[in-house]
Amino acid sequence: MSMPPSPYPAGPPMWAPEPPPPRNGLGISALVLGIVGVVFGFIPFLFWITGILGVLALIFGLIGRGRAGKGLATNRGVALSGAILGGLATAMAIGGLILTIWFVNDVAEKVEKNSREYEVPAVTDEESKAAGDEEQAAEEAAEEADKPLAFGETRKYADGVKLTVAKPAPFTPGEFAVGHEKGNVAVQLKITIVNDGKKTIDIGLAVPTVRDGKGKSAESVFDGESATDMFSGKLLPGKQAVADYTFSLSPAGAKELQMELSPGLDYEEAIWVGPVK
Length: 277
Prior knowledge:
The chain has helices spanning 25-41, 47-69, 76-117, 125-146, and strands spanning 154-156, 161-165, 169-170, 185-195, 201-202, 209-212, 219-220, 234-235, 240-249, 256-261, 270-275. By secondary structure, the chain is α+β, with helices and mostly antiparallel strands.
């Protein structure tokens, strides 16, 4: 038995519409930006990058969380993690800004302090005059040092030290004298150092250099008794030291004597020139 035909024509089957894809992009972006922002937060002086990334991560994370609450996204946890990391990065940026301001102020204070320490104080008229007098005295002392002195004269230094070389006196070396050859002329020079300054001076190296009239270096004479008694030690302020130096001169050069001497390493050498007799 056949079925009666349907009054409605057969049509295609009915399908339910597909749901839109989840909008998870902001949540993922928030997480990535939050992680990068926190990493930059540990690098000094990059707080400004950390702040930008942190704010963006916080905004994107909150928006992504809102979408997940409306069913438009499926990564609620990712968006929430991104927002939390964004807030942390923002806090780190604020801390970095505060530390940077403190560091810059501290460096500026130290620079200012050092500049004040090295600042040249103002010179008064009296100090300027005193400095000018000292400079003039030093120039006069330098000019005096260049002029030869006669034996018996005194070389005066700016700090109060005085150096005197007496006139050469004939000397007869002992039997066992060293440095004197038979036929030569031996002369002795008495040297006096007076310290009228304010500082102790080292006179251990105050050793004269002597040349005869021919320009030849004279030999020092030692006899173990009284030929040569050298300076030694230090000379206190207000004290004086006396020493005798004996030299052997060839007969040809025994007419004139030139001696160079300074009271210490810090002093210019003075020159004495004069006849032996």
